[in-house]
Amino acid sequence: MGKLFFYSDQIVESPGNRRLDHILLEGADLQNTKIGYIPSTEDEEKTHFNVKAQYYRNYGIQDCVFFDLYSEFDSSNIDKLLQCDIIHLSAGNPIEFQKAIKHRKMEQVLCDYFHQGGIIVGVSGGAVQLGNSIKLFQLFSGDSSEVLEGLQLVDFDFLPHYNRWDEDFKRDVESYAEKAGTTVYAGNDGDGMIVENGKIEMIGDIVVINGQ
After folding, report:
1. How many domains in the chain?
2. Helices (H), ranges, 142-185
3. Domain carrying residue 170
Protein backbone atom coordinates (compact mmCIF):
# COMPACT_ATOMS: atom_id res chain seq x y z
CA MET A 1 0.00 0.00 0.00
CA GLY A 2 1.06 3.54 -0.67
CA LYS A 3 0.19 6.83 0.94
CA LEU A 4 -2.66 9.27 0.22
CA PHE A 5 -2.72 13.01 0.84
CA PHE A 6 -6.07 14.81 0.86
CA TYR A 7 -5.80 18.60 0.52
CA SER A 8 -8.92 20.77 0.71
CA ASP A 9 -6.87 23.37 -1.11
CA GLN A 10 -3.12 23.78 -1.57
CA ILE A 11 -1.67 27.23 -1.04
CA VAL A 12 1.70 27.97 0.46
CA GLU A 13 0.30 30.60 2.85
CA SER A 14 -1.68 28.00 4.79
CA PRO A 15 0.04 26.55 7.91
CA GLY A 16 -1.98 23.35 7.50
CA ASN A 17 -0.90 22.95 3.90
CA ARG A 18 2.71 23.60 4.82
CA ARG A 19 2.43 20.86 7.42
CA LEU A 20 1.00 18.47 4.84
CA ASP A 21 3.77 19.44 2.42
CA HIS A 22 6.40 18.82 5.09
CA ILE A 23 5.09 15.31 5.76
CA LEU A 24 4.74 14.63 2.01
CA LEU A 25 8.33 15.61 1.25
CA GLU A 26 10.05 14.61 4.48
CA GLY A 27 13.15 12.55 3.74
CA ALA A 28 12.81 12.91 -0.03
CA ASP A 29 15.74 13.66 -2.32
CA LEU A 30 14.05 16.79 -3.63
CA GLN A 31 16.47 17.41 -6.49
CA ASN A 32 15.64 13.96 -7.88
CA THR A 33 11.96 13.78 -6.94
CA LYS A 34 9.62 13.48 -9.90
CA ILE A 35 5.94 14.50 -9.72
CA GLY A 36 3.33 13.40 -12.24
CA TYR A 37 0.64 16.05 -12.60
CA ILE A 38 -2.81 15.01 -13.87
CA PRO A 39 -5.10 17.97 -14.67
CA SER A 40 -8.79 17.80 -13.87
CA THR A 41 -9.70 19.67 -17.04
CA GLU A 42 -8.27 20.77 -20.37
CA ASP A 43 -5.14 22.85 -19.79
CA GLU A 44 -3.69 23.43 -23.26
CA GLU A 45 -1.77 26.54 -22.22
CA LYS A 46 -0.44 24.70 -19.13
CA THR A 47 -1.65 27.61 -16.99
CA HIS A 48 -2.71 25.53 -14.00
CA PHE A 49 0.19 23.13 -14.45
CA ASN A 50 2.74 25.95 -14.38
CA VAL A 51 1.26 27.35 -11.17
CA LYS A 52 1.56 23.98 -9.47
CA ALA A 53 5.01 23.30 -10.91
CA GLN A 54 6.14 26.58 -9.34
CA TYR A 55 4.54 25.53 -6.04
CA TYR A 56 6.73 22.43 -5.98
CA ARG A 57 9.79 24.34 -7.23
CA ASN A 58 9.52 26.39 -4.04
CA TYR A 59 10.50 23.18 -2.25
CA GLY A 60 13.34 22.40 -4.64
CA ILE A 61 11.50 19.96 -6.93
CA GLN A 62 12.30 20.67 -10.57
CA ASP A 63 10.86 17.64 -12.35
CA CYS A 64 7.10 17.84 -12.89
CA VAL A 65 5.55 15.74 -15.65
CA PHE A 66 2.28 16.80 -17.31
CA PHE A 67 0.01 13.79 -17.99
CA ASP A 68 -3.09 14.86 -19.88
CA LEU A 69 -6.45 13.08 -19.92
CA TYR A 70 -7.85 15.33 -22.65
CA SER A 71 -6.65 16.41 -26.11
CA GLU A 72 -3.00 15.56 -25.42
CA PHE A 73 -3.68 12.13 -23.95
CA ASP A 74 -1.08 9.56 -25.00
CA SER A 75 -1.27 6.11 -23.44
CA SER A 76 2.41 5.57 -24.20
CA ASN A 77 3.17 8.09 -21.44
CA ILE A 78 1.62 5.91 -18.75
CA ASP A 79 4.95 4.23 -18.03
CA LYS A 80 6.53 7.67 -17.44
CA LEU A 81 3.69 8.54 -15.06
CA LEU A 82 4.20 5.34 -13.08
CA GLN A 83 7.90 6.13 -12.67
CA CYS A 84 7.01 9.29 -10.74
CA ASP A 85 7.58 9.42 -6.99
CA ILE A 86 4.28 11.29 -6.49
CA ILE A 87 1.15 11.52 -8.62
CA HIS A 88 -0.73 14.80 -8.19
CA LEU A 89 -4.46 14.90 -8.99
CA SER A 90 -5.31 18.55 -9.55
CA ALA A 91 -8.14 20.66 -8.21
CA GLY A 92 -11.22 21.20 -10.36
CA ASN A 93 -14.68 19.87 -11.12
CA PRO A 94 -14.75 16.37 -9.55
CA ILE A 95 -17.52 15.14 -11.85
CA GLU A 96 -15.71 16.04 -15.07
CA PHE A 97 -12.44 14.76 -13.62
CA GLN A 98 -13.94 11.36 -12.81
CA LYS A 99 -15.49 11.14 -16.29
CA ALA A 100 -12.09 11.82 -17.84
CA ILE A 101 -10.39 9.19 -15.65
CA LYS A 102 -13.05 6.70 -16.63
CA HIS A 103 -12.95 7.64 -20.32
CA ARG A 104 -9.19 7.06 -20.46
CA LYS A 105 -9.48 3.85 -18.41
CA MET A 106 -7.05 5.17 -15.82
CA GLU A 107 -8.82 3.84 -12.72
CA GLN A 108 -6.84 0.61 -12.58
CA VAL A 109 -3.58 2.36 -13.44
CA LEU A 110 -3.94 4.70 -10.47
CA CYS A 111 -5.13 1.96 -8.13
CA ASP A 112 -2.22 -0.29 -9.08
CA TYR A 113 0.22 2.58 -8.55
CA PHE A 114 -1.13 3.11 -5.03
CA HIS A 115 -1.27 -0.58 -4.12
CA GLN A 116 2.32 -0.97 -5.26
CA GLY A 117 3.44 1.69 -2.79
CA GLY A 118 2.93 4.93 -4.71
CA ILE A 119 2.11 8.29 -3.18
CA ILE A 120 -0.96 10.12 -4.50
CA VAL A 121 -1.76 13.74 -3.69
CA GLY A 122 -5.31 14.91 -4.31
CA VAL A 123 -6.25 18.57 -4.10
CA SER A 124 -9.93 19.58 -3.79
CA GLY A 125 -11.69 17.83 -6.69
CA GLY A 126 -8.59 15.67 -7.10
CA ALA A 127 -8.86 14.52 -3.48
CA VAL A 128 -12.50 13.60 -4.05
CA GLN A 129 -11.34 11.01 -6.62
CA LEU A 130 -9.55 9.00 -3.93
CA GLY A 131 -12.75 8.25 -2.01
CA ASN A 132 -15.77 6.03 -2.47
CA SER A 133 -17.80 8.14 -4.84
CA ILE A 134 -18.51 11.47 -6.52
CA LYS A 135 -22.19 11.33 -5.50
CA LEU A 136 -22.04 14.35 -3.19
CA PHE A 137 -21.13 16.56 -6.11
CA GLN A 138 -23.71 14.94 -8.35
CA LEU A 139 -26.20 15.77 -5.60
CA PHE A 140 -25.01 19.38 -5.55
CA SER A 141 -25.01 19.82 -9.34
CA GLY A 142 -28.09 17.75 -10.10
CA ASP A 143 -26.03 15.72 -12.58
CA SER A 144 -27.21 12.18 -11.89
CA SER A 145 -27.09 10.91 -15.47
CA GLU A 146 -24.70 8.14 -14.43
CA VAL A 147 -23.35 6.71 -11.22
CA LEU A 148 -19.81 7.96 -10.71
CA GLU A 149 -17.69 6.05 -8.24
CA GLY A 150 -14.34 7.23 -6.95
CA LEU A 151 -11.13 5.23 -7.06
CA GLN A 152 -12.22 3.71 -3.73
CA LEU A 153 -8.75 3.71 -2.26
CA VAL A 154 -10.41 4.49 1.08
CA ASP A 155 -13.81 3.55 2.49
CA PHE A 156 -15.14 7.11 2.90
CA ASP A 157 -16.01 10.21 0.89
CA PHE A 158 -14.01 13.43 1.09
CA LEU A 159 -15.64 16.86 0.98
CA PRO A 160 -13.28 19.83 0.45
CA HIS A 161 -13.98 23.50 1.18
CA TYR A 162 -16.40 22.70 4.02
CA ASN A 163 -16.22 26.33 5.17
CA ARG A 164 -17.59 27.49 1.81
CA TRP A 165 -20.74 25.35 1.67
CA ASP A 166 -24.06 26.77 2.87
CA GLU A 167 -26.10 25.20 5.65
CA ASP A 168 -28.64 23.68 3.27
CA PHE A 169 -25.98 21.69 1.45
CA LYS A 170 -24.36 20.66 4.73
CA ARG A 171 -27.72 19.19 5.78
CA ASP A 172 -27.89 17.41 2.43
CA VAL A 173 -24.45 15.96 3.13
CA GLU A 174 -25.64 14.62 6.49
CA SER A 175 -28.70 13.06 4.83
CA TYR A 176 -26.54 11.53 2.12
CA ALA A 177 -24.16 10.00 4.67
CA GLU A 178 -27.08 8.52 6.62
CA LYS A 179 -28.88 7.11 3.58
CA ALA A 180 -25.69 5.75 2.02
CA GLY A 181 -24.40 4.40 5.33
CA THR A 182 -21.05 6.00 4.69
CA THR A 183 -18.69 8.42 6.40
CA VAL A 184 -17.81 11.81 4.97
CA TYR A 185 -14.63 13.58 6.03
CA ALA A 186 -15.05 17.31 5.42
CA GLY A 187 -12.11 19.69 5.43
CA ASN A 188 -12.06 23.47 5.60
CA ASP A 189 -9.63 25.29 3.34
CA GLY A 190 -6.16 24.81 4.81
CA ASP A 191 -7.08 21.41 6.25
CA GLY A 192 -6.24 17.96 5.01
CA MET A 193 -5.68 14.32 5.79
CA ILE A 194 -3.09 11.61 5.32
CA VAL A 195 -3.99 7.94 4.96
CA GLU A 196 -1.38 5.21 5.25
CA ASN A 197 -1.92 1.52 6.05
CA GLY A 198 -5.54 2.24 6.93
CA LYS A 199 -4.62 4.88 9.51
CA ILE A 200 -5.94 8.43 9.14
CA GLU A 201 -4.00 11.48 10.30
CA MET A 202 -6.04 14.67 10.31
CA ILE A 203 -4.42 18.04 9.76
CA GLY A 204 -6.59 20.93 10.95
CA ASP A 205 -10.26 20.86 11.91
CA ILE A 206 -11.72 17.93 9.96
CA VAL A 207 -15.46 17.39 10.41
CA VAL A 208 -16.45 13.74 10.49
CA ILE A 209 -20.01 13.08 9.31
CA ASN A 210 -20.75 9.47 10.17
CA GLY A 211 -23.87 7.99 8.64
CA GLN A 212 -23.17 4.41 9.71
Report:
1. 1
2. 167-180
3. 3-210
